[in-house]
Fold Acyl-CoA thioesterase.
Amino acid sequence: MTDQARASAATLTGAIEGKPTSASRTTLSHIMTHNDTNLLGTVHGGVIMKLVDDAAGAVAGRHSGGPAVTASMDEMAFLEPVRVGDLVHVKAQVNWTGRTSMEVGVRVLAERWNESTPAQQVGSAYLVFAAVDADGSPREVPPVEPETERDRRRYQEAQIRRTHRLARRRAIRELREKRAADGIED
Ligand SMILES: CC(C)(COP(=O)(O)OP(=O)(O)OC[C@H]1O[C@@H](n2cnc3c(N)ncnc32)[C@H](O)[C@@H]1OP(=O)(O)O)[C@@H](O)C(=O)NCCC(=O)NCCS
């Protein structure tokens, strides 16, 4: 289906028109300085997490065409230490969309300032963003349209994570309700 045909179909059905993954994919690059280090002299994990949230937020805003807030961040993995002088690239894309939320996948790569080697993956994370209106209430997002086999794999894996997140949340809520009903206080 052409872009124009898709737009017409979406207008006729009242559905929000889908957006391809590539329309919002983003890379944020940053050189690490002494201000970014922990007591060991390597880069603080929180500095990387801030860059991850920034890049993912930019992607969520671009995909949803407006403000989006971080609802959760999970599976943040730090694979290798990042050092002062490293050029860090944070690559983010929408993996999956629900009605008002989006999962954004992020890969963190580092180019060593003193080595002419390819950028090395140093971290990864998955974040859920909710698109919100001016009052902070969730609003609908365009469905993401995966374009490549890798996009499609990421979409399917995001659905598995979504199922697990919801199941975990429900199980914990039920446990707390049961403990409260049994009169158990923390
Ligand atoms: C995220 C937020 C908008 C959700 O609002 P809510 O009233 O709970 O609304 P809903 O339950 O309808 O959730 C909206 C969407 O977010 C998803 N969501 C909400 N909390 C989630 C969580 N912890 N993990 C994963 N997804 C979550 C819901 O599944 C839903 O997605 P869907 O419409 O695609 O099915 C609200 O909790 C909020 O504003 N949180 C603060 C966000 C913020 O300030 N972030 C920055 C931290 S400083």
Notes: The beta strands are 19-20, 26-31, 68-78, 87-97, 101-111, 120-131, 144-145. The mean pLDDT is 93. Residues 149-181 form the longest helix (33 residues).
